[in-house]
Amino acid sequence: MSATSVDFVAVDLADVARVARAALLRAGCDEANAAATTDVIVRAERDGCASHGLFRLDGYLAALRSGKANGRAAPVARQIAPGVLRIEAQCGFAPLAMQTAREALAPLARMQGLAAAAIVDALHFSALWADIEALVDEGLGALCCTAYLPVVAPTGAIKPFFGTNPLAFGFPGDEGFIFDFATAATARGEIQIAARDGLLAPEGAGLDAQGRPTRDPAEILGGAQSPFGGHKGSALALMIELLAGVLIGQPTSVEAAREDNGDGGPPRGGLLLLAFDPARFGDAAGWRAHASAYFAQLRALPGIRLPGDRRRAERARISVEGARLPIALWRAALAAAGET
Ligand code: NDP
Questions:
Q1: pLDDT per residue over 180-220, tens digit each?
Q2: pLDDT-derived band of residue 340, with 50, 70 and 90 as boundaries?
Q3: 124 is catalytic
Q4: What is the pLDDT of residues 104-143, one digit of tens each?
């Protein structure tokens, strides 16, 4: 570990993993839950997604301590229709349930061409790309979404009603394309980090409690975030409330807030995960070469930068240099792990 500035420290990813796992075990997770949750924390740090890395550990621990999260959940997958699985996450953190979902969904998607998993009673707090990357790596397409707590005002309103509701899509092939973003203009973690670091939120990130546009992150956290792209992002956020909530019998964001204990951890909720096998859509011999040729044309455009490019570059760099963590965050994690 070496200090890179007064405020930040570079930490080897193996140390991040050791400390996160120890803290989760100490707060009541069993090995399987601690390992799966640690994996998504470390992968977020490795890919330069600070808002979903060690920054989230405190929320995970709060949810364990308050009893909202079941650190010993043993997720179960049931096939409830030819192309539909239901994964009971048993109020555990989502990573282990997502692992269970992927393992059951991949063979079903290969057999059916397209299959869905409804993950229910999960506490989701991570970046969605981490949930679909393994499917894309093994040659499947994927789409995943989840709701949250009401923090985003629908277009035209000033009070929060939608969650930040992320959506991730992946297409396999030589390019292995994945995008993943909140349907809010800015992920909430980014606004919390801006508040913590004394920075302004991006233009258009949200409204104060009176509905006036502001870049003050504290005012946005007490007011409402805005959807990205006006009515378009607002409609996508609504779609996600329906797919990850109503469709699968799980709380929408406003409903999740009514039962949440406010411990700062993730609320109970659902995720919808779809997987498809491109080899089953009528161009088994050609789709991969077609995709490669298409991406080659796209990449030839001057100035092009595709989703995932930054993450891949960060992965190569951070795997060598370590994660850049605020010293206070690292010290808190060490304390939670019992290392101070
Ligand atoms: P960003 O706006 O940072 O990025 C979204 C996507 O767009 C990424 O795939 C990113 O690729 C890509 N991208 C960013 N800038 C460009 C650019 N200039 N040109 C092309 N592509 C670009 O995401 P958000 O802030 O909206 O979300 C951050 C994370 O928060 C997501 O991982 C999301 O899953 C997570 N989240 C989780 C929630 C939960 O409840 N669990 C709730 C809300 C968000 P790259 O990564 O390579 O930069």
A1: 999 999 989 899 999 999 999 999 999 999 999 999 999 99
A2: confident
A3: no
A4: 999 999 999 999 999 999 999 999 999 999 999 999 999 9
- Strand partners of residue 8: 326
Fold of 8-184+227-282+289-296+321-336: Ribosomal Protein S8; Chain: A, domain 1 (3.30.1370)
- The pTM assigned to this predicted structure is 0.95
For a ligand 1 pocket test, name from 181, 190, 305 the mutation site with the most ligand atoms within 8 angstroms of its C-beta: 181
Using most ligand atoms within 8 A of CB, pick from 126, 310, 312, 317 the residue to mutate for ligand 1.
310
